[in-house]
Design a protein that fits this description.
There is one protein chain. It is built from four helices and eight strands, in the order αββαββαβαβββ. The chain is of the alpha+beta class. The protein has three domains: 70 residues; 102 residues, Protein of unknown function (DUF541), domain 1 (Translation Initiation Factor IF3, 2-Layer Sandwich); 100 residues, 2-Layer Sandwich (Alpha-Beta Plaits), CATH 3.30.70. The strands form two sheets. Strands 1, 6, 7 and 8 form a four-stranded antiparallel β-sheet that branches. The chain has a four-stranded antiparallel β-sheet with strand order 3-4-2-5. A hairpin with a 6-residue loop joins β3 and β4. About 31% of the residues have low confidence.
Length: 290
């Protein structure tokens, strides 16, 4: 069918209008799609951010949990150390008891010289027997007498070349005698012919009981000192871990020494006065702290 000019013009305009509508629709559709896509991307971004935040929170939560676990372990170790008694405090103290000696010991010596060794020994034995008899007469029992020293040696001329004789020296020790009887004992043995007296020592027969008292006082003093140290350190004293008894001593200051070279020089009215003794105990105590 043939169209005139007007009809062709109308058809062209109609086609142009249709194409424009299609383009507009497409554009509109594209815009909606783009908007939808943007919303999708925004949603995806939000999801990604949420996931990232969640991951961060999870990491932070794990980190906090690790820190908490570390603190808990550290506290447990400290507690375990205290409970095991590893944290301790020690204190040392001493105390003493004064005692008046009531017993004494003394050494009597006799020296004899002769041309021969046999004669020197024989003379010494006779004088020693006489001394033992004197001691027995003064009330000294056999169990309180013993010989701590005995010697025999030659004597020489002034040039030291030739032997001119022999000397015997013997010592008789007397122990466990009453202090009150010592002066009479020494005077009697002087008259018996001893040539020297030495080693007059005094001691207390109740030493064991006196030492126990000093030990008890030392332990109490050490415990008190530990208490003061713990308080100063801002802690409390726990249970006792150990207690050690340290060196102890019985001071014998004032022990007598009496020595003369011959019986003629000895005075039978001499005086020996003993001094009080200090009986000391020392301890170290260890306590836990809490």
């Amino acid at each position: 069918m043939k169209m005139n000019q007007k009809q062709l013009l109308a058809l062209g305009i109609s086609m142009m209008l249709g194409a424009g509508m299609l383009t507009g629709c497409a554009a509109a559709a594209g815009g909606s799609l783009s908007k939808a896509t943007g919303q999708g991307n925004a949603a995806a971004g939000s999801t990604s951010a949420d996931a990232s935040d969640a991951g961060t929170e999870a990491d932070e939560g794990t980190s906090a949990a690790d820190v908490g676990a570390t603190k808990t372990d550290s506290a447990a170790n400290i507690d375990a150390g205290v409970d095991s008694g590893h944290t301790t405090i020690s204190a040392e103290a001493s105390d003493y008891v004064m005692a008046s000696p009531d017993q004494a010991s003394v050494n009597f010596s006799i020296e004899t010289t002769a041309k021969t060794a046999k004669d020197a020994q024989s003379q010494n034995a006779k004088q020693m027997d006489a001394l033992i008899g004197t001691l027995s007469g003064l009330g000294v029992g056999e169990d309180a007498i013993y010989t701590p020293d005995y010697s025999l040696y030659p004597t020489y001329d002034n040039y030291g070349n030739n032997i001119v004789g022999y000397k015997v020296s013997s010592t008789l020790a007397v122990k466990d005698q009453s202090v009150d009887e010592m002066e009479k004992l020494i005077a009697g043995c002087t008259d018996a012919g001893v040539t020297s007296i030495s080693g007059v020592n005094y001691y207390y027969s109740g030493y064991s009981d006196a030492y126990d008292k000093a030990l008890d006082a030392a332990v109490k003093k050490a415990a008190q000192k530990a208490q003061v140290l713990a308080k100063a350190a801002g802690a409390e004293l726990g249970s006792m871990v150990s207690i050690t008894e340290n060196d102890n001593s019985m001071n014998t200051d004032g022990s007598g020494y009496y020595s003369m070279t011959s019986s003629e020089e000895m005075s039978s009215d001499m005086k020996i006065i003993p001094q009080d003794q200090k009986i000391t105990a020392k301890v170290t105590v260890v306590y836990t702290l809490k």
